[in-house]
UniProtKB/TrEMBL annotation:
InterPro entries assigned to the protein according to its UniProt record, in alphabetical order: FA58C, Galactose-bd-like_sf
Identification of the protein by name: Discoidin domain-containing protein
Domain F5/8 type C, chain residue ranges per copy: 572-665
Signal peptide residues on this chain, from the entry's feature table: 1-24
Lineage: Bacteria, Bacillati, Actinomycetota, Actinomycetes, Pseudonocardiales
Organism expressing this protein natively: Lentzea miocenica
SUPFAM superfamilies on file: Galactose-binding domain-like
Region (Disordered): 153-176
Comp. bias intervals (Polar residues): 155-171
Length: 957
């Protein structure tokens, strides 16, 4: 039964961070969205040809049609077409394209692995759904497609498809720059699935399907440590590798969560064939080697909309229709409650998303309609997965469980922190530099995708120093980084509260999403900014931007617009450049550059459909120019500029009498708000700037001054801005947001001296109390940053006391006599009586963070697929008192320390006989031996039932 859209949006908690969606509502929502999408799908119908179009595989809409025709309660009003006519269009299309496929004797499409086989998978599935209505010849053609593709793909072995050009999984090893073996090996696997599902096995089919599927997320260090078998084949026989020694893969030259999801995207396409055919799922679809470690990279970038944030990809952001299927597969087939939450969050937003112009579409924010047939097909598959495999119930504390701070490494260029309150990432991949932050995980607050700059200079990072803090080892989650540029330094820090701190060498920029999308939280058509100087509401621009600038009349023959800040992706492009209404029309117009077909004169020809655009090679150039010669000097007082998507973020208008000497007469933007100290952004987030310079709001762009900038999810910004900021040596910037001490050495030399702080907080290290605070002894290596937790406060402590905080448990005081109360961060108290002698005190019942165990919280292998009898090895490095690893018969585990160290290892076992065991070491995760300089530590056992379990692996330098 269809449900009222508004009732659904409220019932599913659309306006909350944790949507509550029943299983029936998710499936029914998918059905309703498919119905509404049919109005777009019918635009692909060619009435002359009597079928849906071939262009961009538009005929793939038949899968959504087939679901609507064979399931649910069809609603012609929502679909915009009567059911019988939709059936007629669908059958005619299937008949034509079944016969025109290369594998059935045609020549129009098919067989080519990239990307015909994706659409063949949809097409075969659509045909099977509507099988009773197909004639015998069409059925035979569909069967020929499934069988023929499986035969062809298996015949390639691990070689390239000669029909696919440069697209290749790079054999069974993968791992070359620019690829994502997840996607490319997945394509080979999905080319085999329809044949296996509908026709059983064929020569080499099952072996090839298993090989490609097992290797999609392959990584040698993990696979070699895993003796488990999947479909009878050892995981250790995998051959695939990544470009990096991590579970991040690369596509489009960067880390993209959309592509990280390919393992479950192709698995969803494959699984539905087996389920619908009534065949058992291949084991590899249920037990995916390294799948959970890959899933962790998605959780570490997830937004409140159930769609991962895309900090380094700008053409896959907000593709809601295409991002459903990985979640649907995990929530139904793998029964993952985290994925069920994310799917519910995404489902609760689909109707509002679909209703936003251009209406009906499901992948609209890519700017290209070519993704629509695919999105429709994958939403249809998601519906079927819910029908065939009802999902598990979602978790209620998603972001608490997803919390993770992780450094993916220098080359991937992402230092990420997912906390319960926000997501943040320091991005240093060339071309994508930014300090991305999404308070409350709000998918539609700040623009962070692709090359969009944020806070940091967008220029190349020449070196980076990064630190990751983890609760299990350090007592809190967070990150700190110090980045070196050709002309200076910048620092970032993320805190467990969701707050971020940035040490800016020059003003930083934040762009805000501002549009009207009814029913979507925050997207009301305007954003409200509040600061000490007042409040302003900035309305959304729903169409191409039009700027009308007036200025005191001047006499000029030449008028030009000079860029200052281009659109971050497309540069500059103008439909119309008007001077005093019509003075520029038809007059000679020149530009610093132009793209063929978009010449300068097209901005002054009076035709609203033509435009000037800078040359592609010049899109990143800031000072591109467009000038018009009016023919004679006239009084000029007004210009009107109608921009395309490539609208200038900033520019100026200049006039000249001779075309040589120019005078600026107007500029854009003119600040909507300029305010000192602090800025609230729409009640959703806020900034505090420790600077004498103001924060400005210009349209949908916030400019923050150089110095320390703090970003808060929700806080009393006025009070925070009024509090005293730390001060220190000239090269050091310091912040004390949320009580944490963030330190940044913005120089190439070590920094020593004193940081002056207000209040009675005590940090790890040495400090001397003053009348109103402390003087913290600084020792910070060149170009580094760190964060210190406020482990203690000293209530009633007098000035002149030296406190040396050794860790979160032990403090040494001297400089008495004095009496005061030491208060731990967790609220425990300890009275201290200090005489003239030095005294060391221990806070009872607390952990002495930071701990020096390198194994704590590290990745362990085996992971996703465990051998029989073995429990998760992570239990030996989780720091908990009552967990332990049960090895299983002759079990072996490996700890990845993340970097090479010279180490000492100690093992703690539970009660009972300790099994025979050895400890070996490896630098590369492939060869193990006795040398203790290692990144990987392996514990091999001769475990049998009755032996003790391993409580902990402790690794120290």
């Amino acid at each position: 039964m269809l449900i009222n859209r508004r009732q659904f949006l409220y019932a599913t908690g659309l306006l909350t961070l944790a949507p509550s969606v029943s299983l029936a509502e998710v499936k029914n929502t998918y059905y309703e969205v498919l119905l509404r999408h049919t109005k777009w799908a019918e635009t692909q119908y060619d009435a002359t040809a009597g079928r849906y179009r071939r262009t961009d595989f538009g005929f793939a809409v038949v899968l959504g049609n087939a679901v609507l025709l064979t399931r649910g309660t069809y609603d012609a009003a929502l679909a915009g077409i009567e059911k019988d006519l939709l059936r007629e269009h669908t059958l005619a299309t299937i008949k034509h394209f079944a016969a025109s496929n290369v594998l059935s004797g045609g020549s129009e499409w098919g067989k080519t692995l990239f990307w015909d086989t994706t659409f063949q998978s949809y097409f075969v599935l659509a045909a099977r759904l509507i099988w009773p209505d197909l004639d015998a010849a069409t059925r035979a053609d569909v069967e020929a497609i499934a069988r023929g593709q499986a035969d062809y793909t298996a015949s390639l072995g691990t070689g390239n498809d000669p029909r696919s050009g440069s697209w290749t999984p790079n054999g069974s090893s993968g791992g070359f720059r620019g690829d994502t073996k997840l996607e490319e090996m997945g394509v080979y696997a999905q080319a085999l699935a329809p044949g296996l599902a509908w026709h059983g096995d064929g020569p080499g089919w099952r072996e090839a399907f298993g090989r490609w599927s097992r290797n999609e997320a392959g990584l040698p260090v993990a696979d070699l440590a895993n003796p488990s078998t999947v479909d009878g084949v050892p995981i250790s026989a995998n051959t695939a590798t990544n470009l990096y020694d991590t579970f991040i893969v690369e596509n489009h030259g960067s880390f993209g969560p959309h592509y990280q999801s390919e393992l479950w995207r192709t698995s969803g396409r494959n699984a539905v064939h087996f389920l619908l055919a009534g065949r058992p799922l291949p084991e590899v679809l249920l037990k995916q080697p390294n799948g959970e470690l890959l899933w962790r990279t998605i959780l570490a970038t997830m937004s409140d909309a159930g769609e991962p944030l895309m900090p380094m990809v700008d053409d896959r952001e907000h593709l809601y229709g295409r991002d459903v299927i990985p979640l649907a597969f995990r929530s139904t087939v793998l029964r993952d409650p985290m994925a069920a939450w994310a799917e519910a969050a995404l489902a609760s937003r689909l109707l509002a998303y679909q209703a936003h112009p251009p209406v009906y579409r499901l992948a609209k924010f890519s700017g290209e309609a070519k993704y629509e047939p695919e999105a429709r097909a994958e939403l249809a598959i998601s519906y079927l997965l819910h029908e065939l495999r009802p999902p598990v119930a979602p978790v209620s504390d998603f972001f608490t469980r997803a919390a993770l701070a992780i450094d993916h490494g220098v080359e991937p260029g992402l230092l990420a922190h997912q906390s319960a309150a926000a997501w943040a990432g320091t991005v240093t991949k060339p071309g994508f530099t930014k300090f991305a932050w999404q308070p409350a995980h709000d998918d539609w607050l700040f623009k962070i995708s692709g090359t969009t700059p944020m806070l940091l200079p967008s220029t190349a990072v020449t070196s980076r120093n990064a630190v990751v803090y983890q609760q299990i080892r350090d007592g809190f989650d967070g990150t700190a980084s110090l980045l070196t540029f050709a002309d200076g330094f910048a620092g970032t820090a993320t805190l467990p509260t969701g707050t971020v701190v940035c040490a800016l060498p020059r003003p930083g920029r934040v762009d805000v999403h501002n549009l009207a999308m009814e029913g979507m939280p925050g997207l009301t058509g305007s954003r409200t900014y509040t600061g000490a100087a007042g409040r302003v509401a900035v309305k959304a621009r729903e169409q191409f931007r039009v700027d009308e600038l007036t200025f005191p009349a001047v006499s000029a023959r030449h008028v030009r617009v000079v860029g200052v800040r281009p659109h971050p992706t497309y540069g500059y492009s103008l439909f119309d450049f008007e001077v005093n209404d019509s003075l520029a029309r038809g007059k000679p117009t020149t530009a610093s550059s132009f793209d063929p077909g978009f010449e300068p004169a097209k901005a002054t020809d009076g035709d609203p459909a033509t435009r000037w655009a800078v040359a592609r090679a010049e899109r990143g150039r800031a000072d591109s120019r467009l000038a018009v010669d009016l023919g004679a000097s006239v009084a000029v007082s007004r210009v009107r500029l109608r921009w395309e998507t490539a609208a200038a973020g900033a520019y100026r208008v200049e006039t000249s009498a001779d075309g040589a000497a120019w005078t600026a007469v107007a500029s854009y933007p003119r600040p909507d708000l300029s305010t000192p100290g602090w800025l609230d952004v729409d009640g959703r987030a806020g900034f505090v700037a420790r600077s004498a310079s103001p924060i400005t709001v210009e349209g949908d762009t916030i400019t923050l001054p150089a110095g320390i900038v703090e970003g808060y999810v929700r806080a009393d910004l006025r009070a925070i801005a009024a509090s005293a900021a730390p001060s220190g040596p000239p090269s050091v910037l310091a912040g004390n947001a949320d009580g944490f001490l963030s330190l940044f050495n913005l120089s190439g030399a070590p920094a020593t001296g004193t940081v002056r702080l207000r209040g009675n907080r005590l940090y790890r290290g040495t400090q001397v109390t003053t009348r109103d605070g402390t003087e913290y002894a600084l020792d910070l290596p060149a170009a580094t940053a760190r964060v210190e937790a406020p482990w203690f406060t000293a209530r009633g402590i007098p000035a002149g006391i030296t406190a040396v905080v050794h860790n979160a448990q032990r403090v040494t005081f001297h400089g008495g006599p004095a009496m005061f109360v030491l208060v731990h961060r967790d609220g425990r108290t300890l009275p201290v009586v200090l005489g003239r002698a030095e005294r060391t005190v221990m806070m009872p019942g607390v952990q002495p963070f930071p701990l020096d165990d390198l194994a704590l919280g590290r990745v362990t292998f085996p992971n996703s697929v465990l051998p029989p009898g073995m429990s998760d090895p992570a239990a030996a490095v989780d720091g908990r008192q009552h967990t332990a690893w049960t090895p299983g018969r002759d079990g072996r585990m490996v700890v990845d320390l993340g970097a090479v160290h010279s180490v000492q290892v100690s093992l703690k076992w539970t009660n009972g006989p300790v099994p025979p065991h050895t400890v070996t070491y490896s630098v590369d995760g492939k060869s193990y031996g006795p040398t203790t300089t290692a990144r990987y530590v392996a514990v091999s056992t001769g475990w049998r039932p009755g032996h003790a379990s391993l409580h902990s692996v402790q690794v120290r330098r």
